[in-house]
Design a protein that fits this description.
The structure is a homodimer. Chain A folds into 2 domains: about 90 residues, Arc Repressor Mutant, subunit A (Orthogonal Bundle); about 55 residues, Dna Ligase, domain 1, CATH 3.30.1490.190. Helix content of chain A is about 45%, strand content about 25%. Chain A contains 6 helices and 6 strands. The first copy, chain A, has a 3-stranded antiparallel β-sheet. Chain A binds a DNA duplex (30 and 30 nucleotides) through helix 2 and helix 4.
Chain lengths: ~150, ~150
DNA sequence: TTTGTAATTGAGATACAATCTCAATTATAC
DNA sequence: GTATAATTGAGATTGTATCTCAATTACAAA
């Protein structure tokens, strides 16, 4: 099995793009962050290592990582796009707490199956799918009761 | 059964808010549009009837309509929030064609059930959920083959 | 009907994420 | 090494969404 760096290198080569130090830095940064992150969090982390690194480069690189299936957009949170790396992970759905922002991940095989069924029904060729449930996590529910 | 205007009036009254001509205009506009729309489409339509109507008022009113369950956000399309009215409609999922923008609506009772199950599993109190599938509709698939 | 008051409005200013521009730089193939 | 097309950073720009504030208005109570 290839490493994520190999994956990225191959993707770039196939598309006549270059593997630059900036792209390498961003790639490593993405996989060193625990799961969900937005562009600013990533920039803040990487900017410490390379003061020159521009936000624009991150904005330009992340779509490439999406394109070669190393990361994906998840839910939008407070107007910002959130990403997570998916290389070596299975697809899963998200439950987002509206109060504390906690994200619960859940995989439900039966839902995946039903989605495929729906696509077949409409002769729809799915590229990507996202199930997001917004509400309140157990802790926040308890807090709200307590008030 | 109440009309959507009654629903809105009740909601406003309960919250000490006013039923203004602008809000009435926006409400009617929303329900006269066929399903999915974004704020600009709505403004363009309403601006013709009332040249004074400000975008800000629409931006301020739509969250009220969401709050009282007359409309809901659907998928984000090209960076814009899309809305649809749901008064008198059942919840449904969306299949969005990445090429032509066509939106297919689908309701699948079994998925709804499974979602409830997941929420129970995590003691999560859902407020809202959205399932979006992005890909290519049948027509666009055929077009792409043809090329 | 009149009045008091708090909510609402429009217009423009503002905030902010995301994108674009362009000269300077650099990775890659030969 | 050299040629060349891709890439970069910094700042400008775009475009959605939000905020500000003085003027206006809906609505409840008199």
């Amino acid at each position: 099995m290839n490493s994520y760096e190999d994956e990225f290198r191959n993707y770039l080569k196939e598309n006549g793009l270059k593997f630059t130090p900036e792209r390498q830095l961003i790639l490593k940064g993405v996989f060193s962050l625990h799961k969900h992150f937005d562009i600013d969090q990533l920039w803040e982390k990487l900017h410490r290592k390379d003061r020159r690194l521009s936000r624009a480069t991150i904005y330009r690189t992340l779509p490439l990582l999406v394109e070669c299936n190393l990361i994906q957009e998840t839910l939008r949170c407070q107007g910002r796009v959130q990403y997570e790396h998916i290389f070596g992970h299975e697809h899963h759905d998200h439950l987002v707490c509206l109060k504390c922002g906690k994200i619960i991940e859940s995989r439900e095989e039966r839902i995946e199956k039903l989605q495929e069924e729906i696509c077949k029904r409409y002769h729809f060729k799915a590229v990507e799918h996202r199930l997001g449930i917004r509400g309140y996590c157990q802790k926040c529910q308890n807090k709200m009761k307590g008030t």
